[in-house]
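Sequence, C-alpha coordinates reproduced for absentees:
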Amino acid sequence: MYDNLGGQAGLPRQQTSAQQPNPFGNVFQGAGPGIIQSGLGAYGERILGSGSEYVQSNISKYFSDPQYYFQVNEQYVRNKLKVILLPFLHRGHWTRIAEQVGGKLSYKPPIYDINAPDLYIPLMAFGTYVVLAGFAMGIHGKFSPEALTLQFSKGLIGWFFQILLLKASVYFLGSGESPLLDIVAYGGYAFVGISISVLARIAWSYSYYGVLIWTCLCMGILLVKTLKRVLFAPARSYDKDTSKYHYFLLCVALAQFPLFFWLGYISV
Protein backbone atom coordinates (compact mmCIF):
# COMPACT_ATOMS: atom_id res chain seq x y z
CA MET A 1 0.00 0.00 0.00
CA TYR A 2 2.81 2.35 0.95
CA ASP A 3 4.76 1.55 -2.22
CA ASN A 4 1.61 1.89 -4.19
CA LEU A 5 0.77 5.26 -2.71
CA GLY A 6 4.38 6.45 -3.03
CA GLY A 7 4.44 5.45 -6.60
CA GLN A 8 1.17 7.11 -7.29
CA ALA A 9 2.18 10.22 -5.39
CA GLY A 10 5.58 10.54 -7.12
CA LEU A 11 4.32 9.97 -10.61
CA PRO A 12 2.26 13.16 -10.90
CA ARG A 13 5.16 15.26 -9.58
CA GLN A 14 7.53 13.87 -12.29
CA GLN A 15 5.00 14.42 -15.02
CA THR A 16 4.37 17.98 -13.82
CA SER A 17 8.06 18.92 -13.83
CA ALA A 18 8.63 17.34 -17.24
CA GLN A 19 5.64 18.97 -18.83
CA GLN A 20 6.18 22.41 -17.28
CA PRO A 21 6.59 24.91 -20.17
CA ASN A 22 9.80 26.98 -20.46
CA PRO A 23 8.91 30.62 -21.10
CA PHE A 24 12.32 31.27 -22.72
CA GLY A 25 12.46 28.14 -24.84
CA ASN A 26 10.68 29.48 -27.88
CA VAL A 27 12.59 32.74 -27.69
CA PHE A 28 16.06 31.11 -27.83
CA GLN A 29 14.97 28.48 -30.32
CA GLY A 30 13.50 31.01 -32.70
CA ALA A 31 15.46 34.22 -32.21
CA GLY A 32 18.81 32.79 -31.09
CA PRO A 33 19.86 31.10 -34.34
CA GLY A 34 18.58 34.04 -36.34
CA ILE A 35 20.58 36.56 -34.33
CA ILE A 36 23.73 34.45 -34.45
CA GLN A 37 23.37 33.76 -38.16
CA SER A 38 22.73 37.38 -39.06
CA GLY A 39 25.56 38.57 -36.82
CA LEU A 40 28.07 36.11 -38.23
CA GLY A 41 26.87 36.88 -41.75
CA ALA A 42 27.37 40.62 -41.31
CA TYR A 43 30.77 40.07 -39.70
CA GLY A 44 31.80 37.67 -42.46
CA GLU A 45 30.71 40.07 -45.17
CA ARG A 46 32.72 42.80 -43.51
CA ILE A 47 35.85 40.65 -43.33
CA LEU A 48 35.45 39.32 -46.87
CA GLY A 49 34.63 42.76 -48.20
CA SER A 50 37.69 44.39 -46.65
CA GLY A 51 39.86 41.44 -47.69
CA SER A 52 38.61 41.63 -51.26
CA GLU A 53 39.28 45.37 -51.40
CA TYR A 54 42.77 44.83 -49.99
CA VAL A 55 43.59 42.12 -52.53
CA GLN A 56 42.18 44.11 -55.43
CA SER A 57 44.08 47.25 -54.41
CA ASN A 58 47.37 45.36 -54.15
CA ILE A 59 46.81 43.51 -57.43
CA SER A 60 46.07 46.78 -59.22
CA LYS A 61 49.09 48.41 -57.59
CA TYR A 62 51.72 45.75 -58.18
CA PHE A 63 50.32 43.40 -60.81
CA SER A 64 47.66 45.42 -62.64
CA ASP A 65 45.14 43.26 -64.52
CA PRO A 66 46.71 39.96 -65.69
CA GLN A 67 44.18 39.63 -68.52
CA TYR A 68 45.34 42.98 -69.87
CA TYR A 69 48.66 41.50 -70.98
CA PHE A 70 47.09 38.80 -73.13
CA GLN A 71 44.77 41.00 -75.19
CA VAL A 72 46.71 40.54 -78.42
CA ASN A 73 46.03 39.53 -81.99
CA GLU A 74 48.09 38.44 -84.96
CA GLN A 75 48.67 41.96 -86.22
CA TYR A 76 49.93 43.15 -82.85
CA VAL A 77 52.32 40.19 -82.51
CA ARG A 78 53.71 40.76 -85.99
CA ASN A 79 54.24 44.49 -85.45
CA LYS A 80 55.64 43.99 -81.96
CA LEU A 81 58.22 41.53 -83.21
CA LYS A 82 59.31 44.11 -85.76
CA VAL A 83 59.75 46.67 -83.00
CA ILE A 84 61.76 44.20 -80.89
CA LEU A 85 64.05 43.06 -83.70
CA LEU A 86 64.24 46.35 -85.63
CA PRO A 87 63.58 49.12 -83.08
CA PHE A 88 65.41 51.81 -85.08
CA LEU A 89 62.84 51.42 -87.86
CA HIS A 90 59.97 52.26 -85.53
CA ARG A 91 58.85 55.67 -86.80
CA GLY A 92 55.99 56.21 -84.38
CA HIS A 93 56.13 57.47 -80.82
CA TRP A 94 57.24 55.29 -77.90
CA THR A 95 54.68 56.46 -75.34
CA ARG A 96 51.65 54.43 -74.37
CA ILE A 97 48.13 55.56 -75.20
CA ALA A 98 46.25 56.63 -72.07
CA GLU A 99 42.50 56.82 -71.55
CA GLN A 100 40.02 57.66 -68.81
CA VAL A 101 38.10 54.66 -67.44
CA GLY A 102 35.78 55.17 -64.47
CA GLY A 103 37.44 58.45 -63.56
CA LYS A 104 40.90 56.84 -63.44
CA LEU A 105 43.78 57.06 -65.86
CA SER A 106 44.56 53.76 -67.54
CA TYR A 107 46.31 52.53 -70.67
CA LYS A 108 44.89 50.84 -73.70
CA PRO A 109 45.60 47.11 -74.02
CA PRO A 110 48.24 45.78 -76.42
CA ILE A 111 45.70 45.02 -79.13
CA TYR A 112 45.15 48.79 -79.48
CA ASP A 113 48.64 50.05 -78.63
CA ILE A 114 51.89 48.74 -80.10
CA ASN A 115 53.87 50.28 -77.21
CA ALA A 116 51.89 48.46 -74.52
CA PRO A 117 53.68 45.56 -72.78
CA ASP A 118 52.29 42.06 -73.17
CA LEU A 119 53.11 38.67 -71.70
CA TYR A 120 52.11 36.57 -74.71
CA ILE A 121 55.31 37.21 -76.67
CA PRO A 122 57.69 36.79 -73.68
CA LEU A 123 56.10 33.48 -72.63
CA MET A 124 56.07 32.12 -76.18
CA ALA A 125 59.65 33.27 -76.72
CA PHE A 126 60.76 31.65 -73.46
CA GLY A 127 59.12 28.37 -74.44
CA THR A 128 60.75 28.55 -77.87
CA TYR A 129 64.11 29.18 -76.23
CA VAL A 130 63.80 26.04 -74.10
CA VAL A 131 62.66 23.92 -77.08
CA LEU A 132 65.50 25.16 -79.29
CA ALA A 133 68.00 24.54 -76.52
CA GLY A 134 66.79 20.95 -76.21
CA PHE A 135 66.92 20.54 -79.98
CA ALA A 136 70.49 21.83 -80.09
CA MET A 137 71.48 19.36 -77.38
CA GLY A 138 69.81 16.54 -79.27
CA ILE A 139 71.71 17.32 -82.47
CA HIS A 140 75.02 16.98 -80.64
CA GLY A 141 73.89 13.90 -78.74
CA LYS A 142 73.93 15.59 -75.33
CA PHE A 143 70.22 15.79 -74.64
CA SER A 144 68.97 14.67 -71.27
CA PRO A 145 66.07 15.70 -69.02
CA GLU A 146 68.55 17.00 -66.46
CA ALA A 147 70.33 19.17 -69.03
CA LEU A 148 67.05 20.57 -70.32
CA THR A 149 65.89 21.30 -66.78
CA LEU A 150 69.16 23.09 -66.13
CA GLN A 151 68.68 25.20 -69.24
CA PHE A 152 65.10 25.97 -68.20
CA SER A 153 66.28 27.09 -64.76
CA LYS A 154 69.02 29.12 -66.38
CA GLY A 155 66.44 30.97 -68.48
CA LEU A 156 64.30 31.72 -65.42
CA ILE A 157 67.33 33.06 -63.54
CA GLY A 158 68.22 35.29 -66.49
CA TRP A 159 64.66 36.59 -66.68
CA PHE A 160 64.66 37.24 -62.95
CA PHE A 161 67.95 39.13 -63.24
CA GLN A 162 66.46 41.29 -65.99
CA ILE A 163 63.46 42.05 -63.79
CA LEU A 164 65.71 43.01 -60.87
CA LEU A 165 67.77 45.24 -63.13
CA LEU A 166 64.76 47.14 -64.43
CA LYS A 167 63.03 47.27 -61.05
CA ALA A 168 66.16 48.55 -59.31
CA SER A 169 66.63 51.22 -61.96
CA VAL A 170 63.05 52.41 -61.58
CA TYR A 171 63.31 52.45 -57.79
CA PHE A 172 66.67 54.23 -57.66
CA LEU A 173 65.59 56.90 -60.10
CA GLY A 174 62.45 57.54 -58.06
CA SER A 175 59.97 57.25 -60.92
CA GLY A 176 57.30 55.73 -58.69
CA GLU A 177 55.76 52.29 -58.52
CA SER A 178 55.34 50.54 -61.85
CA PRO A 179 53.20 47.41 -62.17
CA LEU A 180 55.36 44.34 -61.72
CA LEU A 181 53.90 42.65 -64.80
CA ASP A 182 55.05 45.60 -66.91
CA ILE A 183 58.62 44.96 -65.77
CA VAL A 184 58.22 41.21 -66.35
CA ALA A 185 56.99 41.83 -69.90
CA TYR A 186 59.79 44.25 -70.79
CA GLY A 187 62.40 41.89 -69.40
CA GLY A 188 60.93 38.87 -71.20
CA TYR A 189 61.30 40.41 -74.66
CA ALA A 190 64.98 39.45 -74.50
CA PHE A 191 64.09 35.82 -75.25
CA VAL A 192 62.95 36.79 -78.74
CA GLY A 193 66.48 37.73 -79.72
CA ILE A 194 68.06 34.90 -77.74
CA SER A 195 65.81 32.34 -79.45
CA ILE A 196 66.77 33.66 -82.88
CA SER A 197 70.44 33.48 -81.89
CA VAL A 198 70.10 29.85 -80.77
CA LEU A 199 68.28 29.06 -84.01
CA ALA A 200 71.11 30.68 -85.98
CA ARG A 201 73.60 28.53 -84.10
CA ILE A 202 71.65 25.40 -85.06
CA ALA A 203 71.39 26.42 -88.71
CA TRP A 204 74.91 27.81 -89.13
CA SER A 205 77.22 27.99 -86.16
CA TYR A 206 79.40 30.73 -87.69
CA SER A 207 76.48 33.16 -87.74
CA TYR A 208 75.74 32.71 -84.05
CA TYR A 209 77.86 35.51 -82.63
CA GLY A 210 76.87 38.00 -85.31
CA VAL A 211 73.16 37.37 -84.77
CA LEU A 212 73.60 37.42 -80.99
CA ILE A 213 75.34 40.80 -81.02
CA TRP A 214 72.73 42.20 -83.38
CA THR A 215 69.74 41.05 -81.32
CA CYS A 216 71.44 42.19 -78.13
CA LEU A 217 71.99 45.65 -79.58
CA CYS A 218 68.36 45.82 -80.69
CA MET A 219 67.17 44.80 -77.23
CA GLY A 220 69.30 47.51 -75.66
CA ILE A 221 67.79 50.13 -77.99
CA LEU A 222 64.29 48.87 -77.26
CA LEU A 223 64.76 49.10 -73.50
CA VAL A 224 66.35 52.54 -73.69
CA LYS A 225 63.59 53.92 -75.87
CA THR A 226 60.83 52.31 -73.85
CA LEU A 227 62.14 53.09 -70.38
CA LYS A 228 63.02 56.63 -71.32
CA ARG A 229 59.50 57.39 -72.52
CA VAL A 230 57.43 55.23 -70.17
CA LEU A 231 59.05 54.50 -66.82
CA PHE A 232 61.42 57.42 -66.32
CA ALA A 233 59.19 60.19 -67.63
CA PRO A 234 57.61 61.04 -64.21
CA ALA A 235 61.04 61.21 -62.56
CA ARG A 236 62.50 63.52 -65.20
CA SER A 237 59.69 66.03 -64.70
CA TYR A 238 60.76 66.58 -61.07
CA ASP A 239 64.52 66.48 -61.55
CA LYS A 240 66.42 68.84 -63.79
CA ASP A 241 69.61 66.77 -63.66
CA THR A 242 69.01 64.15 -66.33
CA SER A 243 72.59 62.93 -66.64
CA LYS A 244 72.09 60.11 -64.12
CA TYR A 245 69.11 58.87 -66.12
CA HIS A 246 71.21 58.60 -69.24
CA TYR A 247 73.94 56.72 -67.36
CA PHE A 248 71.43 54.26 -65.97
CA LEU A 249 69.86 53.74 -69.36
CA LEU A 250 73.32 53.08 -70.77
CA CYS A 251 74.00 50.55 -68.00
CA VAL A 252 70.72 48.77 -68.75
CA ALA A 253 71.65 48.58 -72.44
CA LEU A 254 75.20 47.33 -71.75
CA ALA A 255 73.92 44.73 -69.29
CA GLN A 256 72.14 43.00 -72.17
CA PHE A 257 75.44 41.81 -73.68
CA PRO A 258 76.59 39.53 -70.83
CA LEU A 259 73.01 38.41 -70.26
CA PHE A 260 72.53 37.42 -73.91
CA PHE A 261 75.86 35.63 -74.11
CA TRP A 262 75.18 33.73 -70.89
CA LEU A 263 71.66 32.65 -71.87
CA GLY A 264 72.66 31.98 -75.47
CA TYR A 265 75.42 29.61 -74.44
CA ILE A 266 74.23 26.00 -74.54
CA SER A 267 76.56 23.23 -73.44
CA VAL A 268 76.62 21.09 -76.58
About this structure: The chain has two domains: 28-63, 72-264. Residues 25-63 form the longest helix (39 residues).
